[in-house]
Write a structure and sequence with these properties.
Elements lengths: L3 H16 L1 H5 L3 H9 L5 H18 L4 H23 L9 H19 L11
Helix pairs in contact: 1-4, 1-6, 4-5, 5-6
């Protein structure tokens, strides 16, 4: 059971990252609103979407899990900061769903990185 928890967390985070891409890549009005509010529309929306896609894929490849988790922490950390400083917790009457999903994703990515810390090159013991 214990060995499946990291895999389940990786799948959850990857699915969260990848399922949001349809909003970014199809220029959904909510996505445009968010990225206009932070001054990153349209290049930021597309660029961050590409990075999220890469992170989601890296999380599913055993040798690159730590890279995917690190990218996710960076991306989602930025999203959380934007929510707290520019966007607000509630976006277009979503009751904070995007914000709380970002918090959960950030925490799960941190746990994934912790479980895979031995893979990080500068943490390896020689």
């Amino acid at each position: 059971m214990k060995k499946y928890i990291p895999l389940v967390l990786r799948i959850i985070v990857s699915v969260i990252l990848i399922q949001t891409l349809r909003f970014k890549f199809t220029a959904h009005p909510d996505s445009i609103y968010i990225f206009e509010k932070v001054g990153l529309e349209p290049l930021g929306r597309i660029g961050i979407g590409i990075i999220e896609l890469i992170a989601g894929i890296l999380l599913l490849i055993p040798k690159t899990v730590w890279i995917g988790a690190t990218l996710t922490i960076g991306i989602i950390g930025g999203a959380i900061i934007m929510h707290l400083t520019k966007i607000g917790i509630e976006v277009n009457n979503d009751n904070g769903t995007l914000f709380y999903t970002a918090i959960i994703t950030f925490i799960f990515a941190g746990i994934i990185l912790y479980f895979n810390r031995a893979q990080i090159p500068f943490f390896k013991k020689n």
